[in-house]
């Protein structure tokens, strides 16, 4: 059992510390770390490195900004071309912040791709930034700077930039030896040491504070450290004393004298959550010391120049050749492995060794729910997978639980490790919407940005992978494509504007850094893409593009119909859609102010209709042109408006005005069917009251519509006398109706009786009133009775 | 107030309530007093969701109609535009905003509420005009399906049919799918989807896709609907062309019902008081709301008009008998009881008076010779008589220049009943129409042809007789008084669309596979998985609930036919009806007409 505990170092009675190697670094660093600006992101995050920056200040030598995974694999590098760098830091969303002397902060992603920049205020331009710190609170990632004017400025959330310039510190003549940003009760303040005094700077005031219980002999403060959770504070004094207590400076945990009077290069907290021991790690050139509530301390020798990275439950130690982790042994491990432990875990381990059976004890517990065991095994597999040096995310179990699986997946997405992320989702059986489809959607958004692939290739690749996976909105992918200027691809992706997929998740506990979700694009409707394309492409290729996109095309047509009729013409032209072109010309003709314009438009329509092989429409348009010309002629000659009357109304008006010859001419020229012409003529004549002409007309030849219409028309114009003239000429089957219409019930009755038609008899009877038509009614009743008898 | 919405099998008050909630939330976003500027088309549909009192409670003090020029003065803090996302309207809004007096104080805040969707196109348009920044809140109000009655939902999207079939613009289908998603969010996932037609297929695809893209919240509501039936209007072009013969259908045909309101000629509604006969006849049209909240109307609305008279006279007797009761009331208790019933009786009496007047108005028309002739021709066509040659009556009507829409309805009806007209017949009609009504109607005719309402027979095959026989579309022995078949709504013709719904419920579409193939567009079935535990265990004798969605419009007669099926004792299915728009032949044809107004020379 001693093999497990060989590297356990006791601190005090109950706690042990262990330093273990995570990776041997493969980054092949030639410089010493001290010659570089180094920043490593928490939660096993990437390491950013700017070489050469301190020693060589000649402008000709361009320093190199590099980003490595925790295992030392180069993720990306870029020559540093901007101004002098003061500080590097990582945001909670794993973006790199490069704070320059002039107060500009450049934001890069972890592939050294520039994202944006912002400034820490104009004041800094002249005074320069002397020092800077990046800090994480529940509000997000913040930046604090100390300017050449010895003033502090800070922004608590760089995504919602609000700069705060803190008040002046009285009597501050030179940069303080040490300062830190504290977050207390949702307020961010700066704590700084000036000689033997501590000042607390908030928004409005600067107050002196003192740590309780500090030995009077401690001397000036040289270094301070705030814990990962902003709860604890450690102070290093000139006498070599380390004071540890709460960050609120209300309680003291312990004090320890290191015996070393030179300030440590770094001092960071090394405590796991809920531990009874609170310890800090101090690093000097060649020595590492863990001190806590104990008279003893743990010392390690440093072979190389090292850099400490505080974590939630320990400290990572980076050097040129290795990457180590120093942490307190978790309670569970202690229980199992501590020498002479009798805890159940330890016994079980013993038993397992005896029987060589994995998960041995489990079999004896029949009512013990297996979920916990299964989940733990799953978690361990996930952790092992991501700790692999090729992935290089050395998360501890505690960190993993704090980070949550969702955020871990996001981080894999950020590193473009899509297959692993998907594999993990599948392994953990995460619901598709949280897992696989979300990752695929991000993959697709990344894919469309690959400019070296053709639209066709990309669209196909995406389609193949995504297929019909649930919860993926193609419109989001289209938006991304559109953002990278690939509008055509955007159309390809966009089938219909749809819903968003939900935002990436945020870890639940707000007291630790909040990893920022990967931004989710908003959907762009087809219209936007189309209108954009229209402005970007020349007309020809724009139309060609649209041809293959029926949805986009019909939407664009709809737009043109309301806004750009001319363009619509071009669209139809390209399609050789002559029918629609003809229709457009007709429509255009009606907005013409002058008759020549109308005729010209109709002439165009005529041509198109012929091309469309729509002979009917062509002939009709020809007729229309003929009519228009004729109407103009009539209008001039007769000084009466004729234009825009229909053919029917033109003839009607001519007859009304007594121009029978001309009407006749139109009837022949336009080959108006006889029946319609007769109806038209008798209606017009009746309206005019020209009964003489009507009678003449009725005798001109045999009426193609019969003579009932004559009766009807006359009755309609209240001329029974004329109506009666035509009633006898009505054929027998309509005669009853005719006589009823003219009001001659006697004749109607006779006709009905003659035809022996019972229905007609009833019709006449219904019109008979007892007072005046008694005789007729009697006659009818008799006839009907007779008819029914038979 | 909205009790009639909850009277049916599905409580549609919940949908209305959801609509009201959304509206209230928006109004509360704009703090302070408000004036609403209305896109006039929206006032009707909004009236069905919220009355003025609701708006007033949320500090709406003034309402204006959207029109160009300067906004009327109103001492309010907020001006809110309620508009459809149409570019023409954006121009008006721009004009309004630009003319606002910048010097006035306090300044008024502008907001815009798009119904039913925000449109980036419109916003971009506003941006180009430089006014987009003037609007503090730009939101959308997804008024997709509006509850009209306990079993009726409509999107009131006037141009849906035209956009889908003439302009291949499927925006309204997208709204329909969205509306169905909202409905499912409130009433549970609909496990079975059937459909017939291209648009139906499209809507179903979008629904499935929306569900897939947003499965985030697993719907855990017990499903109210068992089945959704999506029907394209172009599967049944015939039905709306025929004259509806139910009471409600005829009111709509003759006077036009808009958002459940009808405007009637006032003469018949003059207060009949002795001594002042005919003194001051009202000149304003009489406006009445028609829905099933009115007991009598609920009873007669779906009856064949010929059966309405007897119901009305029976009711009259009952009511006068009830009023007679007062003479028998002797004791104080009896009198008290009589008085307590009085308001209800008076309401019933005024309702009876109204409907008697309406029935008289309608009767004047239905007994006219022309109505009779027109109906005869319609029925001939529908029963398959002489559909292949030029019809005399139509010719005569054209010669006498009857209203164009009437002509178009008849010609289209003939074309549909003959699976297209012979080229010669078609050309003849078209020429007659152009010469009589004007050549500009060539575009309207073109539209009708594109929509398939008017066409030349291709291949010389007439499928209509087969369809008519298989689906029993023509019933000779129709019983108008006590119907036993849906054909009563057209006095002989059974609406094809409703027949499809009826056959789907029993015995299933498999039996009419052949006919379905003759009708345009695909027919399909989709199933939506329900989480276990939500699957229905049907009680013995419990009816299924089917939602029938008519894409492109539905007539009141079709609704009546579906209600008749719901009420059949052995029917086994109850129907809820949804549509893009409530239509009749006239409004439908009108929506397809091209309005050309010549510039004056």
Automatic annotation (TrEMBL), chain A:
The gene is VPS16. Belongs to the VPS16 family. Residues 526-786 form the Vps16 C-terminal domain. It is found in: Late endosome membrane; Lysosome membrane. It comes from the Eukaryota. This is Vacuolar protein sorting-associated protein 16 homolog. One of its GO terms (biological process) is vacuole fusion, non-autophagic. GO terms for molecular function: actin binding. Signal peptide: none annotated. Keywords: Endosome, Lysosome, Membrane, Protein transport, Transport. Plays a role in vesicle-mediated protein trafficking to lysosomal compartments including the endocytic membrane transport and autophagic pathways. Believed to act as a core component of the putative HOPS and CORVET endosomal tethering complexes. It is a peripheral membrane protein.
TrEMBL record, chain B:
It comes from Panurus biarmicus. GO terms for cellular component: autophagosome; clathrin-coated vesicle; early endosome; late endosome membrane; lysosomal membrane. GO terms for biological process: protein transport; vesicle-mediated transport. The keyword Protein transport applies. Belongs to the STXBP/unc-18/SEC1 family. It is a peripheral membrane protein. InterPro entries: Sec-1-like_dom1 (IPR043154), Sec-1-like_dom3a (IPR043127), Sec1-like (IPR001619), Sec1-like_dom2 (IPR027482), Sec1-like_sf (IPR036045), VPS33_dom3b (IPR043155). Keywords: Cytoplasmic vesicle, Endosome, Lysosome, Membrane, Protein transport, Transport. It is found in: Cytoplasmic vesicle, Autophagosome; Cytoplasmic vesicle, Clathrin-coated vesicle; Early endosome; Late endosome membrane. It holds the Pfam family Sec1. SUPFAM superfamilies: Sec1/munc18-like (SM) proteins. Its main location: cytoplasm. This is Vacuolar protein sorting-associated protein 33A. Plays a role in vesicle-mediated protein trafficking to lysosomal compartments including the endocytic membrane transport and autophagic pathways. Believed to act as a core component of the putative HOPS and CORVET endosomal tethering complexes which are proposed to be involved in the Rab5-to-Rab7 endosome conversion probably implicating MON1A/B, and via binding SNAREs and SNARE complexes to mediate tethering and docking events during SNARE-mediated membrane fusion.
């Amino acid at each position: 059992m001693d093999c497990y505990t060989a590297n356990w170092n006791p601190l005090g009675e109950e706690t042990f510390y262990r330093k273990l190697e995570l990776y041997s670094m493969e980054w092949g660093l030639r410089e010493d770390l001290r010659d570089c600006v180094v920043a490593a992101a928490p939660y096993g995050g990437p390491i950013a490195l700017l070489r050469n920056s301190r020693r060589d200040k000649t402008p000709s030598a361009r320093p190199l900004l590099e980003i490595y995974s925790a295992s030392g694999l180069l993720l990306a590098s870029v020559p540093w071309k901007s101004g002098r760098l003061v500080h590097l830091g990582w945001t909670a969303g794993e973006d790199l912040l490069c704070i320059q002397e002039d107060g500009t902060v450049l934001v890069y992603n972890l592939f050294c791709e520039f994202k944006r920049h912002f400034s820490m205020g104009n004041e800094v331009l002249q005074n320069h930034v002397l020092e800077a710190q990046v800090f994480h609170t529940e509000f997000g990632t913040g930046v604090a700077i100390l300017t050449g004017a010895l003033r502090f400025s800070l922004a608590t959330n760089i995504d919602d930039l609000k700069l705060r310039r803190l008040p002046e510190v009285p009597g501050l003549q030179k940069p303080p030896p040490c300062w830190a940003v504290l977050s207390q009760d949702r307020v961010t303040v700066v704590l700084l040491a000036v000689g033997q005094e501590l000042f607390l700077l908030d928004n409005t005031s600067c107050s002196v504070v003192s740590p309780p219980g500090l030995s009077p002999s401690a001397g000036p403060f040289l270094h301070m450290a705030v814990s990962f959770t902003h709860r604890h504070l450690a102070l290093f004094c000139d006498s070599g004393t380390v004071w540890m207590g709460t960050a609120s400076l209300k309680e003291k945990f312990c004090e320890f004298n290191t015996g070393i009077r030179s300030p440590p290069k770094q001092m960071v907290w090394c405590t796991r959550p809920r531990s009874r021991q609170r310890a800090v790690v101090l690093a000097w050139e060649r020595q590492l010391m863990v001190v806590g509530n104990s008279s003893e301390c743990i010392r390690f020798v440093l072979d190389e120049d090292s850099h400490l990275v505080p974590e939630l439950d320990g400290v990572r130690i980076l050097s040129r050749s290795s990457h180590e982790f120093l942490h307190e042994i978790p309670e569970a491990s202690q229980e199992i492995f501590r020498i002479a432990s009798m805890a159940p875990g330890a016994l079980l381990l013993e038993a397992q060794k005896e029987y060589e059976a994995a998960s041995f004890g489990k079999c004896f517990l029949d009512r013990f729910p297996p979920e916990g065991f299964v989940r733990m095994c799953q978690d361990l597999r996930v952790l092992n997978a991501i700790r692999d040096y090729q992935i290089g995310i050395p998360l501890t179990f505690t960190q993993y639980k704090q980070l949550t699986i969702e955020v871990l997946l996001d981080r894999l997405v950020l590193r473009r490790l899509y297959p692993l992320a998907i594999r993990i989702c599948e392994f953990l059986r995460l619901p598709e919407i949280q897992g696989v489809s979300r990752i695929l959607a991000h993959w697709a958004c990344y894919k469309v940005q690959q400019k070296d692939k053709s639209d066709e290739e990309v669209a196909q690749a995406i389609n193949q992978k995504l297929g019909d996976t649930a919860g993926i909105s193609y419109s989001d992918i289209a938006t991304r494509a559109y953002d990278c200027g690939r509008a055509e691809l955007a159309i390809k992706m966009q089938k219909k504007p749809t819903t968003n997929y939900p935002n990436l998740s945020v870890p639940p506990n707000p007291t630790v850094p909040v990893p920022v979700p990967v931004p989710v694009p908003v959907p762009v409707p087809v219209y936007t893409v189309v209108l954009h394309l229209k402005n970007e492409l020349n007309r020809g290729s724009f139309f060609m593009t649209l041809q293959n996109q029926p949805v986009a095309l019909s939407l664009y047509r709809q737009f043109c119909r309301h806004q750009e009729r001319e363009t619509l013409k071009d669209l139809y032209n390209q399609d050789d859609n002559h029918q629609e072109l003809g229709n457009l010309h007709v429509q255009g003709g009606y907005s013409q102010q002058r008759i020549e314009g109308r005729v010209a438009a109709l002439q165009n329509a005529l041509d198109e209709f012929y091309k469309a092989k729509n002979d009917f429409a062509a002939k009709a348009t020809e007729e229309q042109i003929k009519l228009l010309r004729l109407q103009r002629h009539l209008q001039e000659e007769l000084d009466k408006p004729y234009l825009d009357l229909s053919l029917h109304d033109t003839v009607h008006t001519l007859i009304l005005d007594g121009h029978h010859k001309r009407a006749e001419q139109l009837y022949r020229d336009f080959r108006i069917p006889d029946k319609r012409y007769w109806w038209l003529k008798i209606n017009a004549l009746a309206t005019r009251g020209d009964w003489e002409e009507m009678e003449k007309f009725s005798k001109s030849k045999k009426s193609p519509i019969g003579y009932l219409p004559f009766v009807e028309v006359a009755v309609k114009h209240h001329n029974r006398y004329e109506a009666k003239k035509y009633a006898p000429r009505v054929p027998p089957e309509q005669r009853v109706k005719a006589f009823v219409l003219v009001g001659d019930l006697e004749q109607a009755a006779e006709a009905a009786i003659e035809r022996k038609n019972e229905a007609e008899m009833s019709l006449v009877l219904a019109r008979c009133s007892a007072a005046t038509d008694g005789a007729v009614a009697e006659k009818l009743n008799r006839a009907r009775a007779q008819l029914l008898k038979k | 107030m909205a009790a009639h919405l909850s009277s049916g099998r599905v409580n549609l008050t919940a949908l209305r309530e959801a609509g009201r909630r959304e509206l209230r939330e928006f109004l509360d976003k704009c703090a302070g007093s408000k004036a609403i500027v209305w896109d006039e088309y929206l006032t009707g549909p909004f009236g069905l969701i919220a009355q003025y009192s609701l708006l007033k409670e949320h500090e709406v003090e003034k309402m204006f109609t959207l029109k160009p020029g300067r906004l009327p003065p109103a001492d309010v803090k907020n001006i809110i535009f309620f508009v459809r996302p149409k570019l023409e309207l954006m121009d008006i809004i721009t004009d309004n905003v630009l003319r606002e007096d910048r010097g006035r104080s306090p300044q008024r805040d502008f907001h815009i509420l798009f119904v039913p969707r925000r449109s980036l196109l419109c916003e971009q348009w506003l941006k180009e005009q430089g006014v987009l920044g003037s609007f503090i809140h730009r939101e959308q109000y997804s008024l997709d399906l509006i509850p009209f009655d306990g079993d009726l939902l409509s999107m009131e999207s006037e141009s849906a049919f035209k956009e889908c079939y003439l302009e291949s613009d499927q925006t309204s289908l997208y709204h329909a799918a969205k509306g169905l998603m909202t409905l499912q969010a409130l009433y549970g996932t609909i496990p079975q989807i059937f459909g017939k037609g291209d648009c139906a297929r499209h809507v179903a695809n979008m629904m499935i896709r929306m569900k897939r893209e947003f499965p985030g919240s697993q719907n855990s509501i017990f499903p109210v609907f068992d089945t959704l039936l999506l029907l394209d209007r172009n599967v049944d072009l015939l039905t709306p062309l025929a004259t509806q013969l139910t009471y409600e259908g005829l009111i709509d045909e003759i006077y036009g019902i808009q958002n459940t309101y009808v405007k009637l000629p006032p003469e018949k509604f003059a207060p009949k008081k002795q001594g002042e006969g005919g003194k001051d006849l009202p000149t304003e049209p009489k406006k009445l709301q028609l829905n099933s909240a009115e007991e009598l109307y609920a009873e007669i609305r779906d009856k064949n008009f010929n059966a309405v008279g007897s119901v009305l006279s029976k009711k009259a007797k009952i009511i006068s008998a009830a009023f007679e009761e007062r003479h028998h009331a002797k004791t104080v208790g009896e009198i008290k009881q009589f008085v307590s019933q009085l308001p209800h009786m008076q309401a019933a009496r005024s309702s009876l008076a109204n409907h008697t007047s309406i029935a008289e108005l309608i009767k004047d028309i239905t007994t006219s010779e022309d109505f009779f002739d027109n109906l005869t021709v319609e029925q001939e066509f529908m029963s398959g008589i002489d559909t292949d040659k030029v019809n005399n009556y139509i010719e005569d009507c054209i010669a006498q220049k009857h209203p164009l829409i009437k002509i178009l309805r008849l010609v289209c009806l003939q074309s549909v009943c003959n699976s297209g007209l012979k080229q010669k017949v078609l050309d003849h009609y078209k020429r007659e129409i152009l010469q009589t009504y004007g050549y500009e109607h060539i575009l309207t005719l073109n539209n009708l042809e594109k929509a398939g309402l008017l066409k030349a027979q291709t291949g010389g095959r007439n499928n209509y007789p087969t369809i008519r026989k298989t689906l029993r579309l023509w019933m000779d022995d129709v019983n108008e008084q006590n119907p036993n078949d849906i054909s009563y709504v057209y006095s002989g013709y059974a609406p094809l669309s409703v027949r499809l719904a009826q056959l789907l419920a029993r015995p299933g579409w498999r039996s009419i596979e052949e006919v379905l193939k003759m009708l345009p567009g695909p027919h399909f079935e989709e199933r939506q998985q329900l989480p276990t535990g939500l699957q229905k265990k049907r009680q013995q004798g419990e009816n299924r609930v089917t939602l029938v969605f008519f894409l492109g419009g539905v007539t009141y007669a079709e609704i009546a036919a579906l209600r008749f099926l719901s009420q059949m004792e052995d029917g086994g299915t109850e129907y809820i009806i949804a549509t893009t728009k409530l239509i009749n032949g006239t409004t439908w044809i009108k929506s397809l007409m091209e309005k050309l107004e010549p510039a004056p020379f």
